[in-house]
Queue: 2 jobs
Job 1
Amino acid sequence: MDNHKIDQIIDKYQGEASSLIQVLLEIQRKHNWLPKEALERVSEELEVPLARILHIATFYKAFSLVPKGRHTIHICMGTACHVRGAPRVLDTVQDLTGINPGESDLDLKFSLETVNCLGCCALGPVVEIDGKTHGKMGPADTAEVLKNYE
Ligand code: FES
């Protein structure tokens, strides 16, 4: 992400230090993570100490300080999903992507996370990809759905 793009985001918020979280959210959304160079630029332009920005970036789960895949897969491992076969769905995703929960693949295509409930237990096992919910998933359905992501 070059300085020009970061400056455009900062300008959108009139360079106000009070817009720090919105600026960080927009960089995260556009870039999938917060590179250190981007944070240094934000610090300089908004006149907010880098230490404060890093504190915020590590505090909120919405931010990542390491590269993330273009697509984020959340697999629910809560009780309702677990008893209906979530572990087999997780195995399938791990086999197909080659990554474990908390990791991203080298091509930065996918990041994988497990969660304890996605709030739609009746649909278990539930897989959420980029915020889209896929219910009643088995290993074959999961493999089919993953093919749709580039
Ligand atoms: S336990 Fe999986 S959605 Fe609630």
Note: The helical segments are 3-12, 20-31, 36-46, 50-59, 79-83, 86-97, 139-146.
Job 2
Amino acid sequence: MNAILEMRGITKTFPGVRALDNVNLVVREGEIHALVGENGAGKSTLMKVLSGVYPYGSYTGEIHFQGQERRFRGIADSESAGIIIIHQELALVPLLSITENIFLGNEPARYGIIDWDAATERTRALLRKVGLRESPATLVGDLGVGKQQLVEIAKALSKEVRLLILDEPTASLNESDSEALLSLLLEFKAHGIASILISHKLNEVSRVADSVTVLRDGMTVETLDCRAEPVSEDHVIRRMVGRELADRYPRRQPRVGEVLFEVRDWTAHHPLDAERVVVKGVNMAVRRGEVVGIAGLMGAGRTEFAMSVFGRSYGRRISGQAFIEGREVDLGTVPRAIGNGLAYVTEDRKHLGLILNEDVVHNVTLANLDGVASRSVIDEMRELEVANDYRRRLNIRCSDVSQTTLNLSGGNQQKVVLSKWLFAEPRVLFLDEPTRGIDVGAKYEIYTIINQLAAAGKAVVVISSEMPELLGICDRIYVMSEGRFVAEMPAAEATQEKIMRAIMKGEEKVP
Ligand SMILES: Nc1ncnc2c1ncn2[C@@H]1O[C@H](COP(=O)(O)OP(=O)(O)OP(=O)(O)O)[C@@H](O)[C@H]1O
Ligand SMILES: [Mg+2]
């Protein structure tokens, strides 16, 4: 089959970093081509070169698309050639509606007047295509990340697509939404649209990809043809990390003590619609040394629960009691929550977790400035030591710790967020999708850190949409559905089916 895209000898450097070193990529007409590699391997950078985000002249090498050499000067250029990219960090405007976001910059107009009725109609059709049941007038900011992703795809479909690039589209989606998205890709393929899929979820890759290109340290390791013979995940992992990886989850001997953290009858209402109850009478207890999971579908209220507990950072009309070591505590503001030893690692690193235009050092020490101060003056040498220590422990890839976090790869940003909260030395740690967008090797490192925290007597709560992950690292699992905790089980007795059944039953109860 003919190639639709050939990238030849692409080299791209940033000050102090060679992000891409003579990379070759060939995508055939109408295929799904997966691009995999560790955090910082250069995947997003390669796609930014392709789509003109990094314009011609800022890299070396050649791009051939549909048989012609292309020199894109910007994203509008690549779009008019039919290359549409959906970035890893979503780029929608939260205060605008779905329709406005989809047609931002290319509104259908008649006689120079924007035809909003037509736009709304088209939006409705596009939303149907991506399986999103929301009104076109819904504000994007009121949607969860998963649904925002679908809006991005609907937006891509509103343009003339030849090659669709998805940078970790399913990172924030639960299993059924991911499944729907992958079917969507297969459908596009049936219509002759080629796509490039970047993903850390290798099971998805092996399910849909026709070819897989592995990048390591800015270089092409190999391209595998999945149609010739099935590609094993272990083989891909070996090529990605350059070594053998024996286990996905580190072993641990849990030593669980008495209850350290407890909430009783926790209820929270929607911030905009005070009548809507988002978290309903939740009771939760976590013991010292215990890793507890909260399973549930997107929209079950898990993040809302954790955030409402963590200094009321979500919701209105919050009620309920919180206890640490049996003593009732006031967690009413974020500083008070932190002061009582709580930490919350967010799923949305771009908005809540990082100060992107600050360097790695200041992001790491942000939540515990006392830890790097002597007599209330910041000790910069100590700060640097701390940051370097975490960089080593979590294997954060940066040219050095004074690098701006904005320039780190997505997975490495996530590691910085995690470092920040580890350094705050919390007693109770909420981790919300802690391994979202993290490569397999680095996941293992994060699980190891979770184990170390538990071994040090902390109470750890993990929210994750990846059920195998919860089953692999937790001692006990709560299941949340429609704002309620509907089941609780020791992880040893839990299975994906049991969790799913609990979710379904929970949904039935609610009219
Ligand atoms: N604007 C920039 N300035 C400096 N360095 C950068 C910039 N953008 C990317 N880098 C560096 O280039 C390398 C490749 O980053 P890239 O974002 O392409 O990785 P990735 O493979 O997409 O990783 P992830 O899986 O974590 O998203 C990293 O070392 C990153 O720090
Ligand atoms: Mg990336």
Note: The chain has 17 helices and 24 strands.
